[in-house]
Design brief:
The protein is an alpha+beta fold. Helix content is 39%, strand content 20%.
Length: 188
Amino acid sequence: MKRPFVEIDGIVINQEVLDTRFACDLNQCKGACCTLDSEYGAPLLIEEIPLMEKYLPVVLEYLPELHKAKIAEAGFHEYKEGEMMTQSLNNRACVFVFYETGIAKCAYERAYFEGKIDFRKPISCHLFPIRVTDFLGEVIRYERFQDCAPALENGKKENITIAEFCKDSLIRKYGQEWHQKLLLMVKK
């Protein structure tokens, strides 16, 4: 019988992260993870705030005027129900979203890939569709969204799991050695 969770070095991982085929298809979803209907923005770590503030002047150059106005008026983050998170525009788009050929993209990530900053984006965004919950220790789980249906189809076509798709972000969060242990648990 397959267990619903596995553990690596004190981190609990939901088996779905190892088994679910997933590979983003931005041409289909249009960056829906950055524009989900919700009164909550992307979760932020307290230690990410100073980095985001440091690079905010660079990132602002990518943003639409409406997003810049929201940041000028309310800041880029808020504390809500015990969590720090990005502001969102009209309970939908993250304030750091800009659009390129109709696809929502992250201004931090664009500045990072253009070599202007050394902070890629909040780890919660980088890990998506993985969410990390603190439940007497870290628990890694797959967060399902209907808008990600194309990613499930694409993952099946490419035969890639969430654990493999999120390689860079998992290494960023837990290290190369930990990720290698995780990949040993992936069954093809």
